Amino acid sequence: MLTTSLHQADILSKGEDYHFSRSVLSRTRPKALHDQDYYELFWLHNGRARLVTEATRLALSEGDLVFISPGLPHALQGQGEESHIVNLILRRKRVRELIERFPEVSQYFPGAGAIPVQVRRDIRQMAQLSTAAKTLEASPRTALFLEAFLLPLIAGLALEARETTEAMPLWLSDALVRVEEPAVFRDGAAGLVAQCGKAHAHVARTMQNCLGQTPSDYVNRLRMDYAARRLKGTPDSLAEIATDIGLQNMSHFHRLFRARFGMTPRQYRVKYQKGVVQPV
Question: Which segments constitute the HTH araC/xylS-type domain (predicted)?
């Protein structure tokens, strides 16, 4: 897919530190991605959408808040009925100054080209966000009012993340480290549960409460990310890779991979190993 570039100098006037907009997303499939030299955050006010990058497709729904760093080619596509987003374009210098003063900000605005940070907001949190956004929308576009919006938002998110981590039992956090190994995730959800030393139902309830994911969802994400690295960096056949991640059913492998990256394993390999002859 083609990539174009957007520049903050073309969007922000002199003296402006942010741009605020509300819009309805087009449902037309994007013909090109765009990268940018500014930071950005947006949230889906209602409806559903898809965030498209070179490597993946992120499904978004009402209440999803997304942080994007410079240098990541991407595009947004509405899905279903009208999808309304609120969008903030942030001057690069201001965000970097915030990161220097408050290193926690980098959790949400990581380095150039990093994958988007996606955070889910419930109805109450969305109402708070909307109230703060109305104040920001009516304010002068200066660093003072930008910080007055960003710092409480990011401080709240950081506190939520800390509470979630602290609430996670040690047996689960230890198991999540061990399940990163292929020898463990090759056995699927059963491999993760075995590392926990608890009943499957108890592990599933705890993971849902702490992470909002099932053991299968968590392990399959690890499997697909590992498969993507193999497809990108080795000549190993698709069958070999599927077997190594514990998936004997190739159709199932293809379904999981497409759900994660928006393309088949073969398409992913062609995209990232252009000009290299690969095995079938």
Answer: 192-271
